[in-house]
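PROTEIN–LIGAND DATA SHEET

This sheet pairs a single protein chain with one bound small molecule, zinc ion, given as SMILES. Inputs appear in the order they were entered. The predicted three-dimensional arrangement of chain and ligand is reported afterwards as a token string under its own label.
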Amino acid sequence: MALNLVMIGPPGAGKGTQAARLRRQHGIPKISTGDMLREAVAAGTPLGVAVRNIIGAGRLVSDEAIIAVVEQRLAKPDVAAGFVLDGFPRTVVQARALDQMLEGRGPLVVVVVDVPEQELVKRLTWRRVCQDCGATFGGVDTPELTGESSAEGAVESGRCRKCGGQLVQRDDDSAAVVRDRLKVFTSQTAPLVDFYRGRPTFSLINGLQGPDQVTADMNRAIDAALAKDSTRNRARA
Ligand SMILES: [Zn+2]
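PREDICTION REPORTED AS:
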């Protein structure tokens, strides 16, 4: 059965690490609308130009535009066995559109990675980015990090462990900015989580645990969701 997965979680919840593991374990691609839009802007495609103008004007990319991008992506052959969606849907309108796109393609499994705000602020304000190669250190989105001590070591030394470049704090990682970003995320996603919450294929995962435990919980949630869905289909038949 295809594994169609939506992962919802705030910045700093470790979704990047989890998506990479799911890709390895289940052989399904990660689809990040943020990455796709950034690539379109960099490549200067018509979509990229439109997106750059919208963002430059301080507006949000419309539901219609994002839905079209995802619909095109989900039509590609590499998602036949499923996908991990990150950053989409963001709104209930987008969620409804996704349900329509998946008509006849198997169940949609939804996992929310839940991390308290205090912990996210701690993780995000510690994050450093290499000026030269772009590697991130600190936080939990860096797969090669094994624990807090090694992340702190990299941050304290001020040098990139991959290339030796200078580590800097991203402009949007200061505590006040991080709190604002998290508030925006929470107010945006609360209606979305409510939209999915009643479904048998929905799970809430404790993101305060280590990355391995989060992966284990995620796989358990996926197995349970797929089992419930097939039971439901048998009952219906
Ligand atoms: Zn580097």
